[in-house]
Amino acid sequence: MNPKRKQRLLAVTFIVFGVGAAVGLALFALSQNINLFFNPTQVEAGEAPVDQRIRVGGMVVEGSVNRDPNSLAVTFDLTDYQGVVTVAYTGILPDLFREGQGIVTQGRLDAEGIFQADEVLAKHDENYMPPEIQRAVDKANRAETSY
Amino acid sequence: MIAELGHYALILGFCFAILLSTIPLVGAWMGDRVWMRLSRPLAGGQFILVLGSFCALSLNFLLDDFSVQYVAGNSNSLLPWYYKISAVWGGHEGSLLLWALILTGWTAAVAKFSKSLPLDMVARVLGVMGLVNIGFMLFILMTSNPFLRYLPSSPQDGADLNPLLQDFGLIVHPPMLYMGYVGFSVAFAFAVAALLGGRLDAAWARWSRPWTTVAWSFQTLGIALGSWWAYYELGWGGWWFWDPVENASLMPWLAGTALMHSLAVTEKRGVFKSWTVLLAIFTFSLSLLGTFLVRSGILTSVHAFASDPERGSFVLALLIVTIGGSLLLYALRAPVVKSHIGFSERSREIFLLLNNILLMVATLTVLGGTMFPLIAEYAGYEVSVGAPYFNLMFGFLAPVLVLIMGVGIYSHWKDTPAGTLLRKVPPLAVISLPLALVVPWLMGSFEWMVVVGMFIAVWLTVATALDVWAKSASRKGRLQGWLKTSRSYKGMVLGHLGLAVTIVGATLVSHYTVEKDVRMAPGTVAEVAGYQFKFLSVGRKQGPNYVGDKADIQILDGDGDVVTTLHPEKRRYVVSDNVMTEAGISPGLLRDLYVSLGEPVGEQAWAVRLQYKPFVRWLWLGAILMTWGGLLAVADRRYRMLRKASSEKHSVDIQAQENRSATGVTAGGAE
Amino acid sequence: MRRLILFVPLLVIMAMFFLFQQMIDHDPTEMELARKDKPVPAFALPGLRNPERFFTQEDLKGKPMLVNVWATWCPSCRVEHPYLLKLAKEKGVQLVGLNYKDDRTAALEWLDKLGDPYVFTVFDEEGRLGLDLGVYGAPETYVVDAEGIIRYRHVGVVNEKVWNEVLAPLMEDSGTRESEVKDTRVNESTGSEQGASS
Prior knowledge:
heterotrimer; A: alpha+beta; CATH 2.40.50.140; five-stranded mixed barrel; 35% helix; B: 671 residues; alpha+beta; 4 domains; six-stranded antiparallel β-sheet
């Protein structure tokens, strides 16, 4: 093989190998780290998987926030005006967490149907429904329409 | 009146951009020297006009002219004057005007510092930058005019600047980042100009190199500032979120890093020409894409303060014209002639090729992770791609890249004597492995990723140090030898060391951060990572445009000595009714102590987050080293000599240029 | 042949742009409306202020009007409320409220506190009319012409821009066209509408 050919072959091999490995890894990483989104109606209907990392979003039900006076444990209810799911969380809630405010939580659903959140996200703009929430509310309505 | 003047100046600037993008380009095409010469004054005039427009907007902010809609929406009479200035780019319209200002600024800089370039090249480069300017100014004038007024009645006071943006970091972060984003437009303009002129040679690469490096330096600093800002201002100590806006700034940086290295190969060896041109187009495209992603409203994230789908359509059209047009030009004009310059598989060319491949894969990884949720959403699924995906990918790509870097430093152009490279590996490994193993032991817990991270950081440092040792050998001693090395070599050394420092920071802070959420009342003591945090008191505080609670938390070290007293705050901004967490931070080279107030959980009691963040400063220290390295490389004598030499041989040059440009034009036409 | 390879980046980028374009056009606020250009579905629901008075689809005929779906649980409704007041007072727009899946006391309190822009408000506690209309969420605003035909649905907040660029032309359009074509019937139904609002 002449050196030029050899060189080109080498370059092509590198590229194919490198890109192939990266794509494989990316697909693997994606498959491991995609968090599916569920709304409270779906959770209530048992469509959400138990003990798998998912996101649940909705509005915090007014008057449902319960703080343990001696620790940082807190529970509250999330709703999309169709279903309700109880969320348990330990730690500090974000500044924009308020009753009646749309939020997204990330965590796992336990066997009792309580969502054990390890992350609570509130959106920064007050006048704005987070799109995920908006869609959760939309979806609940759509589901109703299709019956 | 001031607003109208600003608007007028912007329209005039737009007209100048039209002239700039037509006259010199036509002149270069027809070979008309007078028309080509017009490019420099036009570029200067355009800059002055946009600067005037920008100053007018700033003045509106300083004078609290709330009849201007943009001012009313982003400022308030209670705002301190320096935040009024930074509020100019706190919203969508103003940040675009800053973009345009910086773009015209770069154009003017190219006009000023291009004395050594052939006239037709200057005309084409400035003309292409003028084209980009047209797009952006049209965008501002059509969809995002910051000078619109409320008529006939105007609000009494403004809606206030988002409190997250009322901060020093945000005064400097966007301008720096834009300097980087926009700076890549110069490399892009050079690439397109070279394609237009049909002259893609080593000289082209040499001219674009310093510009690319400067832009890259700004981009590095801008990203680091953004990370630092998020760290202390968002209040919870996160320094990188893999959020779409951050990703949008990281992508051009990765591509720009690849471009810097591939330009070196093209300049020194005259190979990879097509690839380098493509990379230049690609890098600037990613900058534009970053803008697009942020502003179109397709993405919503913590940072997306301004988004609007209509504007998205406009930016999309802009992108199609700019990127599509340049790629079409590339497809038609890029050289396909086989290069006859050979190099072996042990050559520096191959190592830099590997660097490019890995950096491009990294870029695509980020692009994929950012776009995937959008595509999934379009297909009807709702998913989010979390930080673990990016961490996993970079945890794999970065070590491969750095290991190759360490060996690549020793490679020579064309071919490296057989065995040289292999001989370097054992000493590197022998030094790196024990150090990498001892760090987890020192930090108290063993983690594989820490070993990997420390191994590659030490590997790169030692490889660089050994190379410096070899290169600095001289009769007058090491120090003299080091000083005698070229600035671009010193720049490279600094840049690589900076990367190693950042890797150390990222590795250690990711794995050894200790975080505790505790309930604290006056007198409560909590222990985190050997430090005692004592909650002394909490009280009310009145700020200029906010009210808040302020706590005093005393920190004692293991021996019971007072380290410091921190004052974390919870603020409520009156006008916009926003709540903000102001963290108390005790910075240090080896560790930060980070305290933030959560929420009140009873009489005098608060939920408090206490954090110990080891080596977090190294993240940004490394970025500063990289920036410094980049700027040092640009200050290399090579580039200055070039300028001096050219002014001496000015007349000769002109003659030569005319010949060359004539052949360039005919070659272009013949193709 | 080699040159063809150089077109690959262009094609890839263009494909990507095409996707972007699709995504931008795929605006979630402009969902297809099943009942577009069809009459308002039949309903009989109590008024919010007066539970005894039942309103039907006939009450939505006579003049072009805006039917605004709102609720106290909807933060965006609070945002658009001042502008609705302005529309009703300054522009004389016929606004009908559809209080959607809400609490009567809270809703009345809201109107007392913030002002009432509506000619009348229908109380749709269980979301039945909302279901028939295909309401996705609140706020939504429907343009209903004098014939009681749904002309348009706007999802999201109504503000000056939406009014000027989208709703106002439609209102004018549905007003003039109807009056030209079906003069007599308009007069007929105007009577019933006025009866409802008094």
